[in-house]
Amino acid sequence: MSGHVYLIKKGDFFMIGSTNNIDKQMRKIRPDEIISSIEMAHPEGFEARLLRRYRDVRLPESAYFKLSEKQLSDCKRQLGVKSKIPKTIGAEFYIAITGSLFLFLLSSFLFLRINLSPFLELSLAFALSSLPMWLLFVLGNFGGYFSSDLSLFSSWFNRVRALLIALILSCCSYFLFSKFSL
Question: Is residue 127 part of a domain?
Answer without folding.
Answer: yes
